[in-house]
Amino acid sequence: MLTTPAPVTAPTVLARKGAPPPLVMVTAYDAPSARIVDAAGADMILVGDSVAMVVLGYDDTLQVTTDDMAHHVAAVARARPRALVVGDLPWLSYHVSRDDTVRNAAALVRAGAGAVKLEGGRKRLDAIRAILDAEIPVMGHIGLTPQSIHAIGGFKVQGKRLDAARALVDDAVALAEAGCFALVLECVPDGVARMITDSTPVPTIGIGAGRHVDGQVLVFHDLLGLGNRRTPKFVRQYASLEAAAIDAVARFAEDVREGRFPSSDETYHMTDQMADALGLHEAPPSVETSTSG
Ligand code: KIV
Of 177, 186, 254, 288, which one is the catalytic site residue? Predict the structure, then answer.
């Protein structure tokens, strides 16, 4: 008898700390991408605020709201994935009062997320505690935190200096102690990722953080070669779907222009009887061509 695998939850992710195989997380923003990521066997689907850049065409992630994120989380959840759906809390959704922070996190849970993610270190402990108090699992995110792009001066590798590396380790330990079930480490040197992974009892999920982590995450569009953005060096592109899609649409356009689409098989036909009754089997009237002015 076939058994369906149990859905992934925050506690099952936490229990995977240090145990091979590494955790796999991939972003998705709608039902088709969620189905693909889930069918490929990812453990977690991150409905990232990267949706702003890879789907909505913005230059940074600061442009999306909690309502936008809830809309995308709901679309992903409708695919009913086995993978844990992690909803990304957008900028200014948890930098607000405790009540509003919890309300925003709850909006993502009501949309279908099984956990939320937020960016920042010890500064965000109050927000993390408030959300955990409402029984919502929280994934932390430190290192390069794109919502702080103006404060940190661009998309840059973090933790390159000794004091910054130590601060990241302290942030990670504090977030784990507060109760985060996992931590994303974005764009940090591999040695820093290793120190964090070795000093925290929760899984670390790296993106541009090297191999010494408990799992890896990539953005769906980067991994599949969809979209024209320049990708950072840590992205490995496993397909070139943008090129394949352009080729497919160009072939459709050519078939239409050359009269090859649709074929008879791609057409709904009426019965001969009805065609006769409507006079559609008669020879088409010849077109009058006039040579006189
Ligand atoms: O929004 C996102 O896709 C993310 C990942 C890069 C971790 O936060």
Answer: 186
